[in-house]
């Protein structure tokens, strides 16, 4: 009778733990990036009442008679399946589509990991979690990200000024109609920047001299010739022969008449053809930019943060670091939806999103909790009934003991 009572007590403890875990799941049903947990029970040691025996020549074998001594908690497992996506429209909300964790630096420089991708800027431009942990990654140097170096705090320097870059290369692409008369001129405009980043509007003029022979010149909007007329030629099939392959570039020129325009410009005619039909000339934007400041940023699937500047320049500012583990269930919860490396998690394998089993990233969305309320309420009923049943065993054992005490009367 005492064995049954003690077994029932262990059942009460186990089901109380199940209630605790279920209650925590339900409490975090709307927690960003939360992963639900489940309890696993196992029986405890059993008392052998009669040992088993092996078969013999004159008798058969016997099975052991064993009485269990209750139940105990085998473990609390974590469900790592992805939660549903919730669109927020905030550029600083990131969601992991697949496995992996964001890498953050907590208080005291402790390296932590989280699935909760709700970040904001602090006063220094760093991306931080709601509790102040700093998002880690690689900061770009002159638009180049070195993902082989150590991770550091990611900073998006809003208002950062970028110096102007003079134009050094331009190009003309498209088709010149081969059936137009000699003397026909086609024009296409482009924006260039001088050495001080001042916008200079120019036009490319292409005039037909004779069959398969043309000349191209560059003229400023004020009428000044920046590049003198230079002959170009095509073969009978309409392919460019002058300037020659493989670069199809005209000789570099330095515009005259503008003291602030000291940089040379190289014109490429690769992609220019001469076939019968319509004029499809176009001038892709030449390189070079005016003075600009950082206005916003975008996040690509591989975690690259690209800055968008007021002058139209787009260049990488940094790249988010992500971590993966051989056994994420071995991570220890550190509070605030964060985890730390555990004894059985394995080391953090930090790298780029979309590589090494790490998921891709989305901006403007958050991963919601993967708690299934219908499953949790069912588990709540199961835990409650298990608790009630074990309490009835204690009550029944008590009544039997009472009957035993009453035998003396």
TrEMBL record:
Stretches assigned to the Flagellar hook protein FlgE D2 domain: 184-289
Protein name from the UniProt record: Flagellar hook protein FlgE
SUPFAM superfamilies reported for this sequence: Flagellar hook protein flgE (SSF117143)
Domain Flagellar basal body rod protein N-terminal: from-to ranges: 7-35
Family to which the UniProt record says this protein belongs: Belongs to the flagella basal body rod proteins family.
Principal location class: other
Alphabetic keyword roster: Bacterial flagellum, Cell projection, Cilium, Flagellum
Subcellular location: Bacterial flagellum basal body
Residue span, Flagellar hook protein FlgE/F/G-like D1 domain: 95-153
PANTHER family, alphabetized: FLAGELLAR HOOK PROTEIN FLGE, FLAGELLAR PROTEIN
Coiled-coil region(s): none
Statement: the UniProt record of this protein carries the keyword Zinc: no
Pfam annotation, one family: Flg_bb_rod
Limits of the Flagellar basal-body/hook protein C-terminal domain: 363-407
Claim: Oxidoreductase is one of the keywords in the record: no
Provenance organism: Blastococcus carthaginiensis
Task of the protein: A flexible structure which links the flagellar filament to the drive apparatus in the basal body.
